[in-house]
Amino acid sequence: QVQLVETGGGLVQAGDSLRLSCAASGLTFSNHVMGWFRQHQGKEREFLAAISWRGGSTVYGDSMKGRFTIARDNAKNTVYLQMNSLKPEDTAVYYCAGKKGPNTDDTLRTMRNNGVDYWGKGTLVTVSS
Questions:
Q1: Greatest distance between any 2 Cα atoms in the chain
Q2: How does 82-115 read in b/e, with b if 16+ C-beta sit within 10 Å?
């Protein structure tokens, strides 16, 4: 059974940084594209970032504007999202995602278009002004 467990969320102030982690189990982590999404209350889930099998390729959502960085550690079966210069509008539930498929840009683009095979349960990030 595949499990994706996000940690690292919480309450921070505007301008702070936060790193989210997602520990994966039940899958061969190193041959899955991994990614992050978020969902603001009452809105649709929004793509943030995706990373290829060994981290050589990444793709980001348009709203990130260089503030967020995705990374992975295959030895730890973990994917990270480093978030800097946080703003109140970053307040949302953040979800980890996994996608089966070849290690190609097409798989990254599929995830960007909400093509996801596995979801975590999410972690809440609240940014106060």
A1: 42
A2: ebeebeeebbbbbbbbbbebebeeebbebbbeeb
Sheet with strand 18-25: strands edge to edge: 3-7, 18-25, 78-83, 68-73
Cβ(95)–Cβ(122) below 8 Å: yes
Residue of 91, 92, 90, 94 whose CA lies nearest to 80: 94
Strands 10-13 and 123-128: what pairing? parallel
Band of the pLDDT at 62, cuts 50, 70, 90? confident
The per-residue pLDDT for range 74-97, each reduced to its tens digit, is 999 999 999 999 999 999 999 999
Are 21 and 125 within 8 A, CB to CB? Answer: no
Q: CA-CA distance, 24 to 63, in Å (whole number)? A: 26
**Where do we find the tokens 């994966």?**
24
SS3 50: strand
| pLDDT at site 64 | 76
